[in-house]
């Protein structure tokens, strides 16, 4: 099992500790996401496109991704939805935790089934530089998720 949860819970043990100790996973809006926090916040809950709170539950470090480990170029990694990056990372961790050599899966009868929600990454990055546009199609498509894992691990 592998996971990522708000409150810096990056393993099942850390998630259990968060729950069992009754810790709060709510934090300030992250500054490293490139959001204009001054423009994003408005105390009026009825203002469209604004947040009336300055806090939430976020996955910190979501941008940290070892693209080379998965044979992905830095350019392609930038265009990948964080959900794809996190899925690859946690899939790798599951194999490590299970003491399974990823190369042992090549040619095996192993299925990869993935469910996801919220395919808005491309719309959140409307000013993507032209050199990344070719990767946005696969980097933001939910249909690619299981293929990334299947291809990446054989």
TrEMBL record:
Sequence ranges assigned to domain Ketosynthase family 3 (KS3) in this UniProt record: 1-154
Keyword Transferase: yes
Record InterPro entries: Ketoacyl_synth_N, PKS_Beta-ketoAc_synthase_dom, PKS_NRPS_Biosynth_Enz, Thiolase-like
Record-annotated membrane-spanning stretches: none
Molecular function terms from GO: fatty acid synthase activity
PROSITE patterns: KS3_2
Pfam families (alphabetical): ketoacyl-synt (PF00109)
Keyword field: Multifunctional enzyme, Transferase
Keyword Transferase: yes
One of the GO biological process terms: fatty acid biosynthetic process
PANTHER family given in the database record: FATTY ACID SYNTHASE (PTHR43775), INACTIVE PHENOLPHTHIOCEROL SYNTHESIS POLYKETIDE SYNTHASE TYPE I PKS1-RELATED (PTHR43775:SF51)
Record-given protein name: Polyketide synthase
Organism: Streptomyces tsukubensis
